[in-house]
Amino acid sequence: MTGPPEGPVPNPWRKDLMKSRKRPKAPRARPIRFKTFLIPVDFSNPGNQAVAYGVRLAKALGAEIRLLHVIEHTKVATESFQWIDFFNQVKAVVTPMMDDLAGKVEKQGIRVRTDIRQGTAYSEIVGQAKRFRADLIVMGTHGRAGMERWLMGSVAERVVRLANCPVLTIHPS
Fold it and tell me: How far is the C-alpha of 89 from the C-alpha of 87, rounded, in Å?
């Protein structure tokens, strides 16, 4: 049988004992830096609200903005069943609109670049966010529900699910 220990029982909280027990330091969290915002532009009211919000946020954080417009489904069949691609015609209309928008953003002291792509909107947005290493995507959402959402789909929802960076959605007010 063992009896009680002889002598005083050491106090585990004594300062001289605590020096020998070094606590592991918590890893330092890297500060969150927002250097590049990707803002998809469709020239709709929710899209314009997202641009305005993204510009204010970029100005406050000193971030660069990349404006992206995606042109979808530009091939059309004629009566003689020939395929015509309208991408260049649509791009010719959209380019001055994007340049005008970029000019307004630059006047606020924010570095901005524009890009016009052809493809599926959500796929291009996610792909460009990866390509440009966007720290944040700021985009408008139309707020569709029910049958309209089922038929039209939700670009914003797909981007939120597939993007490798945070997505800030701006709902129409």
Answer: 6
CB neighbourhood size of 112 (10 A): 20
Alpha helices by DSSP H, listed for 7-152, are 15-18, 45-61, 87-106, 121-131, 146-152
Q: What percent of the chain has pLDDT over 70?
A: 75
Which span out of 17-21, 32-36, 81-85 was modeled with the highest average pLDDT?
32-36
Cα–Cα nearest to 168, from 15, 27, 13, 46: 46
Lookup: tokens for 96: 């001055």
Q: Give the count of beta carbons closer than 10 Å to the beta carbon of residue 115.
A: 16
Q: Which domains does the chain have, with CATH numbers?
A: 32-170 (3.40.50.620)
